[in-house]
Amino acid sequence: MKVFSGTSNRPLAEAICQSIGIPLGLCSVSQFPDGETFVKIDENVRGEDTFVVQSTSPPTNHNLMELFIMIDALRRASAKRITAVLPFYGYARQDRKDQPRVPITAKLVANLLVAAGTNRVLTMDLHAQQIQGFFDIPVDHLYAAPVMFDYLKQKKLPNLVVVSPDVGGLKMAHAYSQFLEAGLAIVAKRRKSASEVEHDAVIGEIRGKNVLMVDDLTETAGTLTSAAALLKRRGARKVLACVSHTVLSQLGIERLRKSNIDELITTDTVARPAIGGVEITTLSVAGLLGEAIKRIHTNSSVTSLFEFKGGRAG
């Protein structure tokens, strides 16, 4: 078994290898002056079970192309099996035709991964779970929830209500509320544009409560900050946000600095620089991904990694 890393999130790949107890595979990734990506695998992989860790976070297109080239290099070097490990699957929000003459880019990316030579995919907290069906190869879909649960249990937040900032995240919020034995509420959202949303109603009792908002992804932080403002107006005591993938743009950072969110809890699926003026707690999913890689290699079940109390963590 050998684990290789692209350039999108090398610290996570190194942490995964440390959790497994193997060295990170040797490969060189560079760019030609015209921007083309060059990859060379610097060790023998013939007949090996190989894993490529690459989050397709910004710059998304560059990181995707780098992943395709690394997979092609491994295939041509006669690797026995190639598993693409995508802690964050970019383009996941483009999973359907919601208006005329638009692509289904999440499906296109799935096709390109298979065409490049991917035999299996390991990913985490897909924006839409049906994306697993876009692949004609096995997909192992993990959830960051178990890592979040451990941290939240330690905080022992009293009088807690779990809130979904939109209707689409209700299933995830319900799983969190079950595990934390907390109440459940929903905030009604109306999207005005790609970066602006408007919240105007709360379904559930949150007055005088500590509130935990849960979501899979934030980029411009419009949904989170708008929902937090409404929750505060409706009498919430403390507002925390739990987000699997924090792909923050500059607009998102500025919004968080001015927001009513007391703490943003996230994971290291996406590499990002330190951000001042925002209370961010970053939890590592390296152990979870490392355990999944070990089980895939030994053909063991990964189901127990995302089950709790007889239910699923997402």
Topology at a glance:
Elements: E1 2-5, H1 10-20, E2 27-31, E3 37-41, E4 49-53, H2 60-76, E5 81-86, H3 105-116, E6 120-124, E7 139-142, H4 145-155, E8 160-164, H5 170-180, E9 183-191, E10 197-203, E11 210-218, H6 222-233, E12 238-246, H7 250-257, E13 263-267, E14 280-283, H8 286-297, E15 307-308, E16 311-312
Parallel strand pairs: 1-4, 4-5, 5-6, 6-7, 8-9, 8-11, 11-12, 12-13, 13-14
Antiparallel strand pairs: 2-3, 9-10, 15-16
Question: What features would you describe in this structure?
Answer:
The chain has helices at 10-20, 60-76, 105-116, 145-155, 170-180, 222-233, 250-257, 286-297, and strands at 2-5, 27-31, 37-41, 49-53, 81-86, 120-124, 139-142, 160-164, 183-191, 197-203, 210-218, 238-246, 263-267, 280-283, 307-308, 311-312. The protein is an alpha/beta fold and 314 residues long. The chain folds into two domains: 2-143 and 287-306, Rossmann fold, CATH 3.40.50.2020; 145-284, Rossmann fold (3-Layer(aba) Sandwich). The longest helix is centred in the N-terminal third of the chain and has 17 residues, at 60-76. The model has no long low-confidence stretch (mean pLDDT 91).
